[in-house]
Amino acid sequence: MFLAQRHERILAALAGGGQSVVQLAAALGVSESTIRRDLDILAKGGQLERLYGGAMLTQGSRANITDSGSVEDPFTSDTRGDLELRRKMATEAAQLVSDGDVVVLDIGSTTQLVARELRGRPVTIITSNLAVLDEVRDDDVVEVVLLGGVLRRNQQSLVGPLAEQVIGQLSADMMFLSCTGVRGGHVLDNMAVEAPIKQALIAASQRIVLLASELKFPGSGALRLCSLDEVDVLITTAGTPHDELAHRREAGRKVIVA
């Protein structure tokens, strides 16, 4: 686990209240000495306050974790020029879902559009994406499994160890995975606090469908979610480099150009 990723997970865990070194070490799967070093680094940066045997967030750090910006409407924002690309991908994605399927919809704006396409369908949706919940909360046909966790208001998502623990009890037919970049044969993300949720959902799903428009090649991000070889279906758009598409097809993977 990257140092920055571990620090994000520590801060996310502390957003719900103080934690002991023992609790944090167990949640992150590292040694207590590693956690102590991490807490010292974060405390020097003013992000948390050390307590006897543990730590708690400072008030400013708590705000950064749970509400680090205003919520942006992915449908109306003028700063998102890829709305039509995402709509096309969402339409193709929904066609892969059969009635009765258990489907994971990842954190991200494209998966909200997939949820919109699935309204009125007898499917089960597993998500930590509150924008997805908003799309289907009043739908009597769609069954929704909402993961718990720490609320990140600016991303409309739930994150943290609680969400990861719940995911360990779940099994899905298909996951629609979002990312910030595709580079070097890997699917990438730039949000360390969200990466563990995505990775746990990947492990809980039988098929992985990657939603990555042409803008994600190469995109951005330093955290590896999975390799492209783990992706069963790539849904992308017409501007994606042809060599990328050809390579995926040669590897026996399905490619859909929306």
TrEMBL record:
Any GO molecular function: DNA binding
Gene3D superfamilies: Winged helix-like DNA-binding domain superfamily/Winged helix DNA-binding domain
Keyword terms: DNA-binding, Transcription, Transcription regulation
CDD domains: HTH_ARSR (cd00090)
Classification via InterPro entries: ArsR-like_HTH (IPR011991), Carb_Metab_HTH_regulators (IPR050313), DeoR-like_C (IPR014036), DeoR_HTH (IPR001034), NagB/RpiA_transferase-like (IPR037171), Tscrpt_reg_HTH_DeoR_CS (IPR018356), WH-like_DNA-bd_sf (IPR036388), WH_DNA-bd_sf (IPR036390)
Pfam families membership: DeoRC (PF00455), HTH_DeoR (PF08220)
Xref: SMART domains: DeoRC, HTH_DEOR
This protein's name: Operon regulator, DeoR family
